[in-house]
Amino acid sequence: MEPSKNPTPIPQLLPSPLFYLLLALMTLLFIARSAGKLAGKRKLPPGPAGLPFVGQTFALLKAMRQNRGEQWLAEMAERYGPVFRLSLFGSNVAVLSGVNGNKVVFGGGGGGDDVVGAKQAEWALRILGRRNLLTLDGNAHRRVRGAMGVFLKGDVVRGYVGRMGELVERHLEREWKGKETVLAMPFIKSLSFDIICTLLYGLGGVADRDSLKKDFQDLIKGLWSLPLNLPFTRYRRALQAARRLRAAFAELVVTRKGQLERGEATAYDDLLTCFLSAKGEEEGFTEEEIVDNGVLAMAAGHDTLTLLITFVTRVLADPDLYARVYAEQSEIANGKGHDEPLNWEDLTKMKYTWRVAQETLRLYPPIFGSYRRILKDFEYAGYHIPKGWQILWVSSLTHMNKDFFPEPSKFEPARFDNQSSIIPYSFVGFGAGPRICIGQEFAKVETLVTIHYMVTHFSWKLACPDETVARVPVLTLSKGLPIHLLPHKI
C-alpha cells in the first residue's frame, strides 16, 4: 500500500487552542467548586488580599515606623472582625483579638500545647535557636523554664537589690553628675545591659559586654524584618550576629563549667552555672540548650527593660506624676541611714511607682507582638484555623480597648490600684497564664531600683517634647530622649 501523498499536517493532529482553553476553564471551575465546598465546611478568617509572600508585611512595617501599628491592626479588626487573617513575613497569620484570643496564645484556654505551640517558623529559628524557651512546648518547656526559674525566682532576685543599687548610683555619678542635658535612652540601655551582664552572667569586663551589645541589637532588628537571606539585609545581619553570639556564649559555658569543676563557682553564681548544675529528668542540659537560652535571656531582658525604664522616665517629666513618685521615694530614702543600700522591704513600699510602671507598660509595650504556631487544625469563634498558620499576639488589642480600660489613651496609674479588678488576660504586659514572663520579678526590681535613684538625685524636663515615637521594630525614640537635668539631693 502506497503512503498517502497528502499526509495530515502534524499541527492538525494536535488539539486546537480552543480545546486547551475549554480544559483550563473546566479545571478552574472544578477547583473553585471544590474550594467553595471546603470553605463551606471550614470557614477561614476574613482578611485583606495582598501580594504573594509579602502580603501585608510592608504595610504593617510602615505603620509601625509611624507609630501607627496598633491603630493599623485596630482598623483591620474593625473592618474584618475580632478574628482576621494576614500574610506577614511569608506566613499565614491569624489575629485573635480580645481576652479569649490572649488565652489561646498564653495557654489559658481554647488550645493547649497540642494545638497552639511555641514552634516558630524556620526563618525565626535560625535567629533564636531551636532550643530556646520561646520555641519549646510541653515537658521541654517546663524543664527549661524550671531551671531558669530557680535563678530568677523571687528570693534570689530580691538578693540583687543592693548590687543593682550600686550599679545605678555608679552610672549616675559617671554619666549624669554635672551635666545639664543628657540622652536618657542610651544611658538606660547601657545601665540595663551592665546590670544583666553583671548579675546574670558574671561579665565584669567592659570589653566583654561591649563586644556583645551590637550583635544583640542586630539580632532583635532581624526578628521583625522580611526573612531574605541576602547581602545587606537586616535578616542576613541578624543571622551573622546570632552565630557570633552563640560562639561567645559557648565559650563562656566552657569557662563556667571549668570553674564549677574546680570549685571556683557555685550553682547560683549566674544563669549559666545554674543551667550547668541543674539536672533534667534523665540528664543535664545540652550546650545548645544552655547557649540558646542564655542568648534569649540577655536579648529579652536588655531590650524590654531598657524600653520600660526609658518610657517611665519620659512620663515622669510630667510634674504631677513626678511629684507623687518623688514623695514616695523620698520617704523611703529619708527612712534609711547614710549610704544604707536599698533592700527588698523598701521595694514593697514603692506601690505608686510600680503603678506608674504598669500603666507605662500598658500604653507603651516594648515589644509590638509575638507569634505562636498552630500545631493542628482547630476551630475558634466559628472560624477554621489551619495547622501551619501562626497566631499573632499584639497587646494593644486589649490594652487600648475601652471595654477593658476606660479612656484607654489616658495615662491613669490608679487603674492598677485594685489588681483584682483587672479582667484576666486583658493586661498582658508580661504575658499571662502558664507562659507569663519568667523574668517579670527581675524586671520589677530593676525598674524600681533605677527609678528610686534617678528621682532622689534628679528631676528633669523633656528637651524635645514632640520627639517622634516609632517601632523599628521595637519601640524607640527618634532622638534618644534628651532631658534637661535639675540635680537635687535628699
From TrEMBL:
GO MF annotations, alphabetized: heme binding; iron ion binding; monooxygenase activity; oxidoreductase activity, acting on paired donors, with incorporation or reduction of molecular oxygen
Binding, heme: C437
Keywords of this entry: Heme, Iron, Membrane, Metal-binding, Monooxygenase, Oxidoreductase, Transmembrane, Transmembrane helix
Cofactor(s) for this UniProt protein: heme
Any Pfam family matching the protein: p450
Domain of life: Eukaryota
InterPro entries with a match to the protein in the record: Cyt_P450, Cyt_P450_CS, Cyt_P450_E_grp-I, Cyt_P450_sf
Residue ranges crossing the lipid bilayer per the database entry: 12-32
Similarity annotation: Belongs to the cytochrome P450 family.
Protein known as: Cytochrome P450
